[in-house]
Amino acid sequence: MNKEKRLYQKNNLGYNFVIWFIILNTIYTIFKLNSMPVNLDIGIFVVITIILSLMGFLIAVKVRSYSLFWSYGSCVIGIIQLVRYFFDMGNIDIILSAYLIVSAICIILAGFVSIKRSKERISYILENNLDEKIHP
After folding, report:
1. Sign (positive/negative) of CA torsion 27, 30, 34, 38?
2. Does this model's pTM top 0.85?
3. Is residue 132 included in any domain, yes or no?
4. Residues 26-68 pLDDT 10s
5. Is 95 a member of any domain?
6. Number of domains forming the structure of the chain
7. What are the pLDDT digits (tens) for 54-112?
8. Quick check: is 3 in a domain?
9. Rounded CA gap, 94 and 20, in Å?
10. Would you say 66 and 88 are in contact if contact means Cβ atoms under 8 Å apart?
């Protein structure tokens, strides 16, 4: 892709990876809640899931506009998702594990793609002395 197009086109690939993270995380949450006993753990699980989902929506919007900071944040959310898997490893079946791991991979891929594209965009702007805001 031409570097000039990064100035005008949105980062749809990174955005789509984040949306897949949100979808897979939601599916994981629905099935996990159906199998959990009602106690304090369910409340903690719901709060963590809500925070991750809200962060996912924010990251999706920011990654789409080539925000380098939020691209790194996307990788952090993916790592948090993997840590979540390791804390819950003994309590979930293989299908739920797959949803959790694939969702983590999706958001980490979104971060890597967006970091690469954001840096290309920033370098193009700096090389050509374009009068545009670098970090939207």
Report:
1. positive
2. yes
3. no
4. 999 999 988 888 898 899 999 999 999 999 999 999 999 989 9
5. yes
6. 1
7. 999 999 999 999 899 999 999 999 999 999 888 886 677 889 999 999 999 999 999 99
8. no
9. 19
10. no
What is the number of other CB atoms lying within 10 angstroms of the CB of residue 64? 21
* 24 residue type, one letter: L
Tokens 């990064």, residue located: 6
Tokens of 95: 């299908």
Helix ranges, 3-134 (H): 12-35, 40-64, 68-87, 94-127
Are the C-beta atoms of 114 and 25 separated by less than 8 Å?
A: no
Residue 133 domain flag: no
Length of the chain: 136
Amino acid of residue 91: N
Q: Which domain holds residue 72?
A: 11-127
Cα 60–Cα 83–Cα 106 angle in degrees, nearest 5: 35
